[in-house]
Amino acid sequence: MAPELMTDAPPLAPRPRLHALIPCAGQGSRARTAVPKQYQPLAGRPLVMHTLGAFAAVPRLASVLVAVAPGDSALDTLGAPFSIAHCGGETRAATVCNGLRELRGRGAALDDWVLVHDAARCLVTPALVDRLIDACLGDEVGGLLAQPLADTLKHGPQGRSQATLPREGRWLAQTPQMFRLGVLARALERAGDGVTDEASAIEAMGLQPLLVAGSPQNFKLTWPDDFALAEALLRSRQA
């Protein structure tokens, strides 16, 4: 006789999903571009479209949400596979906080993972995103892409070198930065608008994010010269 099927087993808890959040509400004044730098043409496309193209090529992401400034319609007609929320704030931290609330309103769970990525890091690749996901999925805290510091580090607050700082154990933070939605939301609310990345808010809670090796090419376009370098790199990839 065949064994009876068990009908009183508890249902399996849903696996946490992965979401990408792209804060895209800044003006980028240091870049001195004619338009907000995320929309500056680069290798034939607006800069941010290169960024979003990389995330669109990561099948494990359940959603990609772009947080733009209220009234910003630049992405409305591009028809790319992402969602837009007009929830940008005065600071990057405020924009990310608002984006997390928007994700919750769209059905994301507190236990879901969120990968926050700078719109202006347009040289990120799907392989880098996957590397971060693979490293962090089994981690209790989460983590970020980062690059070990290779150059000699100087302290020069007035334009003159006053001291040479040790570079051992120092990393350049990159994005994406991947944390649980609920934990990240609490961390940012406690830290306030002064934090410049998600990891620093997590660190302020006494947690230690995982450092995952990134790439020197995953730099944030900030200064005018950065655009020429990014253009050359993107053109070389297209070729």
TrEMBL record:
Function according to Swiss-Prot or TrEMBL: Catalyzes the formation of 4-diphosphocytidyl-2-C-methyl-D-erythritol from CTP and 2-C-methyl-D-erythritol 4-phosphate (MEP).
UniProt-listed Enzyme Commission number(s): 2.7.7.60
Database matches in PANTHER family: 2-C-METHYL-D-ERYTHRITOL 4-PHOSPHATE CYTIDYLYLTRANSFERASE, CHLOROPLASTIC
InterPro entries on file: IspD, IspD/TarI, IspD/TarI_cytidylyltransf_bact, ISPD_synthase_CS, Nucleotide-diphossugar_trans
Membrane-crossing residue ranges in chain numbering: none
Site residues by UniProt (Transition state stabilizer): 30, 37
Site, as annotated: Positions MEP for the nucleophilic attack: 167, 220
Coiled-coil parts of chain: none
Pfam families per the UniProt record, alphabetical: IspD
Molecular-function GO terms, alphabetical: 2-C-methyl-D-erythritol 4-phosphate cytidylyltransferase activity
Taxonomic superkingdom: Bacteria
Catalytically driven reaction(s): 2-C-methyl-D-erythritol 4-phosphate + CTP + H(+) = 4-CDP-2-C-methyl-D-erythritol + diphosphate
HAMAP family cross-referenced by the UniProt entry: IspD
GO biological process, one term: isopentenyl diphosphate biosynthetic process, methylerythritol 4-phosphate pathway
CDD domains the record matches: CDP-ME_synthetase (cd02516)
Protein name from the UniProt record: 2-C-methyl-D-erythritol 4-phosphate cytidylyltransferase
PROSITE patterns registered for this protein in UniProt: ISPD (PS01295)
Keywords for the protein's UniProt record, in alphabetical order: Isoprene biosynthesis, Nucleotidyltransferase, Transferase
Protein's organism: Ramlibacter tataouinensis (strain ATCC BAA-407 / DSM 14655 / LMG 21543 / TTB310)
Pathway of action: Isoprenoid biosynthesis; isopentenyl diphosphate biosynthesis via DXP pathway; isopentenyl diphosphate from 1-deoxy-D-xylulose 5-phosphate: step 2/6
Family: Belongs to the IspD/TarI cytidylyltransferase family. IspD subfamily.
